[in-house]
Amino acid sequence: MGKFKPVVIVGAGVLGLTTASVLQDKYPGIQITIVAADVPLVPPVAERERPSPDYASMWAGAHLRPTPGADRQLGDEHFLARRTAAVMKSLARSNPESGVQEVDGREVMEYLPEDKQRLKTGDSYVGADDQFRILEAHEIEAGGVWGCEYKTWIVNVHVYCRWLLTNFIRRGGNVVQRRLNSLDEAFDPSLFPSSPSSSPSSSWLVVNCSGRNFDTDEKTNVIRGQTVLVKNTYHKTATRHNKDDTWSFLIPRPLGGGTIVGGTKQHGDWGTEIRPQETAEILAAAAKYWPDFVSKVEDFEVVMVNVGRRPWREGGMRIEREELGKGRVVVHGYGAGARGYELSWGAAERIAGLVDAGVVSAKL
Ligand SMILES: Cc1cc2nc3c(=O)[nH]c(=O)nc-3n(C[C@H](O)[C@H](O)[C@H](O)COP(=O)(O)OP(=O)(O)OC[C@H]3O[C@@H](n4cnc5c(N)ncnc54)[C@H](O)[C@@H]3O)c2cc1C
Ligand SMILES: *[C@@H]1O[C@H](CO)[C@@H](O)[C@H](O)[C@H]1NC(C)=O
């Protein structure tokens, strides 16, 4: 046995995988088992392998849009997002095969909420050197009242999750693909057959990165998202916020992954079926707002229509240590909603911080 208490991470989404990476960095030799119903597939992910709509990490764009906000939750998320951006930008340079890439971001709004009014050209919101600037009135397309540009990052989610998984295994991590009926089953002795203890429940620590799927937390819900993956590749990430609170966006996927054309955000809508009407609206809006991408809807080469459910939680992510009795300790890290990639490294470092006391004090 190593000198640290073993850890079982439930979940192989971006949060479980990133947390595993942070723990392996912090505690060389630590024994970690990821238990997950769904694990990253080999990219490119094809229609016939369609991951579950509840495996949110497979359905994200994904990009970072800076959203510095005034309230406590947005403020805290902004802190985590800035930390994540620093890691992502450095990964884009050192490990482009991870699927992370630096890119220009542009947003146009048809209305001007208070939190945008406070933003200023020259301030940094993604991180240092993001070249953030508010657009001049004449630069904004018809119908828009406010806009901004900045340097940000995008990620090919399939390549990236697979890359994280491969690194985890290469560094000695263990993966068990299994659906658990409850989190308690993560304390099952069969997960660590070699465990020396007669009271298995306290011989390892469990990290709960299950998205929202166990549904025993009353604060969780879903935000349905339908998007369209097209083969065409746009050169930046762009978002248009409409007056009725719908939006359109383009998120290119690095390494030839095409572009995610989006998309819906439907709070509390549990429907997992593809809605053809939404597909048509999404593509029509994108053709209208970004004529420099396609000149007409028919120019889109559709690869796949996506439906995913974002693991939303009221008040934001739950990052917390909990004692479940009989020596069982769990550290939660779930409920990232629409921001799992944006917050991933900052959140994972915080989750790993709560794991500390449990793994280091262990006398094995
Ligand atoms: C359309 C769309 C667009 C998005 N765009 C962005 C974006 O641009 N930027 C961004 O940051 N985020 C985006 N997101 C959100 C992002 O995808 C999520 O926040 C993130 O993937 C959540 O990751 P997670 O690891 O918490 O959960 P998940 O990826 O859902 O992973 C959950 C893991 O837990 C496992 N699990 C669950 N239940 C069980 C069980 N009973 N037994 C065993 N294992 C279990 C699953 O198998 C899986 O491995 C988007 C989401 C959608 C749907
Ligand atoms: C673990 O995470 C899920 C979200 O997937 C949540 O509903 C649940 O309350 C958490 N804790 C336990 C003990 O299952």
UniProtKB/TrEMBL annotation:
Residues 1-20 form the signal peptide. InterPro entries: DAO, FAD-dep_OxRdtase. One of its GO terms (biological process) is D-amino acid catabolic process. Its cofactor is FAD. Residues 7-352 form the FAD dependent oxidoreductase domain. SUPFAM superfamilies: FAD-linked reductases, C-terminal domain (SSF54373), Nucleotide-binding domain (SSF51971). One of its GO terms (molecular function) is FAD binding. GO terms for cellular component: cytoplasm. It holds the Pfam family DAO. It comes from the Eukaryota. Keywords: FAD, Flavoprotein, Oxidoreductase, Signal. Belongs to the DAMOX/DASOX family. This is FAD dependent oxidoreductase domain-containing protein.
